[in-house]
Design brief:
This protein is mainly alpha-helical and 171 residues long. Helix content is 74%, strand content 0%. Helix 1 (8-48) packs parallel to helix 4 (120-170) and helix 2 runs antiparallel to helix 4 (120-170). The longest helix has 51 residues, at 120-170.
C-alpha cells in the first residue's frame, strides 16, 4: 500500500469501518443466542409432551427443527481459528487479528510490529487486512450460518403447523 504519511481521514474511515464490523458481529451473535434460547425452550417443552399421541408427529418435527436451529446458531458464535503453521516465519505482520500472530514468539512479534510502525503504508495495509478478514468472517460465515438457522427455525414452524393441522383433521 503506497501511503506516504498518516491521514486523519483514512484513520477515521478505518475506525468507522471497524466499529461497523464489531456492531454487525455483536448483532449476529445476539440473534444466534436468541435462536439458541428459543430452540432450547422449544426442545424442553416438546420433549415433555411427546407422550401425547395426537401431538407426537408435530412435536417430533419441532424437536428436529430445534436441534438443527441450535446447531447452526452455535456455529455462528463459534470462533474461527486460523494460525500460522509452526516453523513458518512471516516477513511482515499481515493483520492485527490475534490469530495472525498468536503462534509467534513474543520477540518475533515485537520485531514485526516495530517494522510495521516504521512504514505508514504497511501499517495501513495491516489495518485494511484486518477489516477485510473480519468482513470475510462476518459475511461468509456468520451471516450464512445465521441465515441457515433462521431458515431451519421458520421452516420447522411451518412444517410443524402443517403436521398439526393434518393430525387434528385426521383424528
Amino acid at each position: 500500500m503506497e501511503i506516504k504519511e498518516a491521514n486523519a481521514h483514512i484513520d477515521a474511515m478505518l475506525l468507522q469501518t471497524r466499529q461497523n464490523h464489531m456492531r454487525l458481529t455483536a448483532m449476529t451473535d445476539q440473534k444466534a443466542h436468541i435462536l439458541i434460547a428459543i430452540s432450547a425452550v422449544t426442545l424442553n417443552v416438546s420433549a415433555s409432551q411427546l407422550d401425547n399421541p395426537m401431538l407426537k408427529w408435530p412435536l417430533l418435527i419441532l424437536l428436529v427443527q430445534a436441534v438443527i436451529t441450535m446447531f447452526f446458531a452455535s456455529l455462528v458464535i463459534m470462533p474461527t481459528l486460523r494460525l500460522f503453521k509452526s516453523g513458518s516465519k512471516p516477513e511482515k505482520l499481515h493483520s492485527s487479528f490475534a490469530t495472525s500472530f498468536a503462534s509467534l514468539p513474543y520477540d518475533e512479534y515485537i520485531h514485526l510490529l516495530e517494522k510495521a510502525f516504521q512504514n505508514n503504508g504497511e501499517l495501513y495495509e495491516i489495518m485494511a487486512r484486518e477489516l477485510y478478514d473480519s468482513a470475510q468472517i462476518i459475511v461468509n460465515k456468520k451471516f450464512r450460518l445465521l441465515r441457515y438457522a433462521f431458515i431451519s427455525f421458520l421452516s420447522g414452524l411451518v412444517v410443524t403447523l402443517i403436521a398439526f393441522v393434518i393430525t387434528v383433521f385426521a383424528a
